[in-house]
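Cross-posting from the modeling subforum.

Setting up a comparison between two proteins and wanted a second pair of eyes on the formatting. Protein 1 (sequence, then structure tokens):
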Amino acid sequence: MKYLDFLDDDDKEKAQLLTTLQRYNEQFLSKKKLLELTGLSKFLLERYLAELNKEYPQLRISEEYYDEIAFQPISNEIIQELQYHYAERSPKFRFFIEVLVEEKSIKKFQAEQHIAKTTLYQIRTKVISNLKKAGLSIQKNKLIGPEARVRSVIFDIISYFYFGERYPFTHSEQKIQQLLQQLVSYFNLDLTFLQKRKLALFLQIMQSRRLNHHDLQENFCTVGAKTQQQFGSQLAMLKKVLQSSIPTSAEEESHYVLLFLFVSDMFDCDLSFNDDLLAETKDTAKQLVTKLSDAFQLTQKQEKYLYHSFLKKVLGLSIFRQNYTTFVDISAYSYFSEVYNPLHKLVLRFIRKNHFCLSLNLSKNEQAKLYYDFMFSILAFLEPSQFGNPITIYIDFSHGSAYTEYISQSLQRFRDLNIVIQKRFNNTTQLSISDYKITELTCPQIIWKQPPSPSDWAKFADLVVELREVENEKLEMF
């Protein structure tokens, strides 16, 4: 499913054009190349560039000498602002929210939007076609499918355009904010701004679906004895609050809320899961921990931490399958491949070969989500030295020991590159940094005559990555 398909066709093309321009921030880009990248006609490209200039004058897109396209660097903030603005004025997005999510009558929607019947039919056809790609179907203008999956798809689409902005529902969010505050109070939650936004959207979608009589088909978990003992009265209040607003399935929904809090790292509670689901997720987490331990000699503490972290990630993906509020772009794979090559290969191979991961029929975005979830959990808890031999660096500046120590300490920001600073040069040294070339050395040398600039640091990191690639090639040979 492509999120931008919920925009008007022209707005979709402009959003894609702006994203293409962003990839070439501060780089040479000709109009000819831009036509090739976007597939637009010359007429449409010139029209869209003019409209983007009018909507966002700060971009200052212009045609320079030799057909070069010049523009101010495009930030992620501008991309998000543009997509939000386009969603706000899109009849397709409004149809999705008001008719399919809130289940307003199609006649009432048509009258309020002042659109012809043929236009309404075209809008409906395009929205339904897009949702079918996510495995959902529409019957009598109602979203049909596994209920947990329906809610997750709604969550993803709204998050893509509105995360950080006021959500696009037509009815008041006051009751949702009350429920949010009750949860924070009941379970003493310490939430960040974005966690509150995420939880508010989850609750809004849950209550909207319940109001329209779409209940969960299965009970994923029950509350364990430890949490029941510690939060029994709070759990009873949560169930009562949910039952007072919508009488059906309050117990299953309260468990569903706790599960969301658990896998989102908002509330560490004791839950007893559906036996089949838990058995498969447990086995998957154990398998990955075993593979990591065999490859990187994990400590018992690391194994325990990673097992519980992986269990949450796999449970979260198998039940909620929410993509947008995490990384789903595979472009960063190359960085991890260069810096953590053995780990990168192990995790990627596991996701693509593991039986349970395969049974989930993960999309490319969902595979990417799981990849980053695993990688960040591992990198947060393992020491760089566990990923292989460090790159050894010798530092010798004519400015004196104080300056040499300053550079040594500054290098610690590159901890993830797994480097070691040597006090003396020896035959294991792989890189030297100084303010003069040292003729006696045979290893690569970096010469910094002035305190290093951001560009100098970037070149240093690139060189260390190149040395790391050489080490990875040696490992593969043997």
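Protein 2 (same layout):
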Amino acid sequence: MSGPLLMRLYSIAVGVIVFAGLAYVYAVPPQSMRVTRDGRPHFQPQVLHPETGKGVPLGDLIDHFKGG
């Protein structure tokens, strides 16, 4: 087989694999990507409080700006 044909087949195979992977992640998202009904992620990181420099749970920050 010629080089350009093999490169074209390789490119098509990579494109199909990437598309299938993205479709799978969209259809069945991993647990870490799931959020609650309020839009909060299940695994919330700590965020830096600008005045004290200590960590604040992201949920508290969301509640503060949502008014809850």
